[in-house]
Amino acid sequence: MNPLLLILGPLAAAGLAALWPDDRTRPWFLPAAAAAHTLLAFYCLFHPPLVPAGAWIGFDPLARAMLPAISLLFLLCSAYGVPYLRLRSERSNRVFVPAFLAGLGLMSAAHMARHLGLLWIATEALTLSSVPLLHFNNSPRAFEATWKYLLVGGTGIALSLLGSFCLGYASLHGGGGGDLTFAGLMAQGAGLSRPWVLIAWVLLLVGYGTKMGLAPMHTWKPDAYGEAPGIVGAMLAGGVTTVAFTAILRVRAVVDAAGAGALASRTLLVMGLFSTVVAALFLLSTRDFKRMLAYSSVEHMGILSLAASLGAPGLWAAFFHVWNNSMTKGSLFLSAGNIRRAAGGRTTEEVSGMSLVTPRSAALFVAGLFAVTACPPFGPFFSELLIVKTTFAAGHPGAAALFLVCLLLAFLGLTRVVFAIVYGRPRQAAREAGSKFREGAGMIAPPAILLGFSLWLGLATPEVLREAWTAAAQQLFPAP
Amino acid sequence: MSGSLNLLIGLAMGLNLVALGTSRLQSLIRMAALQGMVLGVMPLLIETEARGMVVLVAVATVVIKGLVIPALLRRAMRAANIDRDLHPLIGFLPSLLLGAAGMIGAVVLAHRLPLLPEHRESLLVAGSLASVFTGLLLLIGRSKAISQVCGYLVLENGIYLFGLLLIHSVPLLVEGGILLDLTVGVFITGIILDRIQRAFDSLDTRKLTVLRE
After folding, report:
1. Which of A414, B87, B166, B177, CA to CA, is 20 to 30 A from A7?
2. Which residues form the domain of A156?
């Protein structure tokens, strides 16, 4: 099986869907392509293909540790997409379905890219393909959010291109050939010109950090996640952010090989803590439950950045957390989408008593809340516990303490909003809109299954995943 | 060869200042396009032997940056039927002064950065830094959406200049991919601008303030 099909398959399906004449049957392209992608991704997880050292693109251990999670999330989102798009039949999905599918292919490409230029092209294309998804709701607010996403994301991604070129120049100046493959750069190692490596690290961290949504480059995130349909928010928070995180990890390995690993770790630690602090503070004040999910995503990106600063053991915990984050965020965004649709509002002033209007979605939302705030026995509890332990072991007790305080504040902020909208008496608007909204199996099962995966990851982390995470950590931190 | 290349880079840096000083949207678009064309020719000067791919990418760059993208922007401008004056958040004179200061800073910084001997005499790094700075200044300092796109293009031009340092090692396939992404990006931006215009009846980004905490 050729892993390149992970990229080409969804792109071909996107092309086909764009040509497909019928609006009613077009959404079926989503689950069909997603199922094939998931099968192939898990086949590659169990039977890792060999990747030639100099290959530009390949299913290497890092891709193996991340991509199956994205694929699984996408599969469940696309299963949700069919009934969702039927519900939204007033809008044509001629652009939505192909753009969503292209996003899957480009996410695969970005995960598998082993060349800086290729990685940049895939990430930029991914940014562009998500634009029509963001303004699917076609409201002025959606366009405003899309504009901010384009402007902030575009500037960030432009800086990461400059950073990529700087890394290439570091190789050239160090006497190398200016090879932009990660393997080539790592092989040159200490031969890379140090000042240029540092400049490149800053630019690439700012660039891909913008895409990932690390504070203070997170400003586009609440707007975009708040205005996008739940299914798009799930993919952005669980998939696109992972792409940027993978990019940062690959660059970090090069910086480490060049002998500036300590500095890179320190920046990641500071950025990670700053993101969790900012997210915790905003979570305490936000009233909008979809923007709340965006700040929660900023928090989890901070957690990933913190974990990535802690060497190989931290990295292992980060991979674990990527899986947990994808599953949990997916579940939350999908159930929040149901609630938003039935409630006809989005702030705690407009919405309350949703446990009476949409009992199943509200139950899932509350369960998802406990999962995302790291309550046992859900997966995030175990990955965050591991991260805290690793932080202590790495000799940063202050960072660990601050991190725990932020988790507590985030918990308070999230529960405040969630309980306000779930309990109490339903508003009149929700009674009217909710009576038209039916919680069919197609809109309940996907978030429930995602939450089930989050639980499963916590209770019994599969051996193959543990092994894949170890292999990926070894790829980035080769034992001397 | 290095002399004529430096002349072109100097021209591009001059265009940066014109772009900062202009008060008309039309001429801002023209400056960004002209700069893109000047940049597009440069690979032909750097490469001693004209490989087929180099010529192809150079021609594509000149056509896309000089003709296609400005055409897209002008169409967006006409469709939006907006008044042609720029409303600066940072005034024209302060922007000019900042731009000039940035240019001097770029030259000084470029001299202090460790460069290969063959790049010491060239203005590539200085021009690149100055354009990136100008682009950011336009992005922050102008309120019209289209002028922000122009700022983004100038920023992109600066990055392109830096990329020329790597022309012997980065495959042109990558350059081509970057160019394609840029074009699609501007195209999509044009569509979004059109929708913003219809929704807000304005392309003034100062009015995009519904979403805030």
Report:
1. B166
2. 5-476
